[in-house]
Amino acid sequence: MSDERPCGHPPARSRSGAIDRGQTVLDFAIGMSVFLLAVAFVFAFVPSLLEPFATNKGANTIIAERGAAHLTETSLSAGSAPGVLSTACTVGFFEGEDPSGEACGWTHDADALEEEIGAGEFTSVNVTITRGGEVVSIGRESLAGGDDPPPDASISTASRIVDLNGETHRLTVRVW
């Protein structure tokens, strides 16, 4: 290949004798396009790399649903049908005392709700059993456990309708 231009003119030379070839607008446009696409890809892809290390609201919803199901089907039912709570196991769970003669399914009481439902150490949980919007009490024990949620927290809630002492109640699990 020769250094001559197709029209027959010799190529332009600089003072040092090198051939001058300037960057064309098309070269610049292609280069900047590739660069901007690479930068946009990095900004779009990096957050998804960090996502597994961040806690989100979806995880709290799953924890609340799993916790409500675990409490109603296993921990407080004492082998009866899911949703039918054993009075002795339920009162014992909130009092923190294992009732004698009952095969309760809980290993941690209401003071350790996070461990009972398998929530992480940085997750707070609250469980209440209500009837008509009021927290139920059996004897002197109020059927509520865990910390009260802060007013500005994003709270995930799961509820189950349960039978306790032949009456319909609502078991609510709140996670934040």
Tell me about this structure:
With 176 residues, the protein is of the alpha+beta class. The chain has 2 domains: 54 residues, no CATH class; 121 residues, Ribosomal protein S3 C-terminal domain (2-Layer Sandwich), CATH 3.30.1140. Helices cover 34% and strands 20% of the residues. It has 4 helices and 8 strands. The strands form 2 sheets. Strands 1, 2, 3, 6, 7 and 8 form a 6-stranded mixed β-sheet that branches. A two-stranded antiparallel sheet has the order 4-5. A hairpin with a 2-residue loop joins strand 2 and strand 3. It is rod-shaped. The termini are far apart.
What profile does the largest beta sheet have?
6 strands, mixed
Radius of gyration: 33 Å
The pLDDT mean sits at 84
User: Which class do the helix and strand fractions yield?
Assistant: alpha+beta
Q: CATH first level of the largest domain: which class?
A: Alpha Beta
- Could you state the oligomeric state of the chains shown? single chain
Which spans of ≥5 residues are poorly predicted at pLDDT below 50? none
- Provide the number of structural domains: 2
CATH topology heading of the largest domain: Ribosomal protein S3 C-terminal domain
Tally of helical segments: 4
The CA-CA distance between the termini, in Å, is: 72 Å
**CATH architecture classification name of the largest domain:** 2-Layer Sandwich
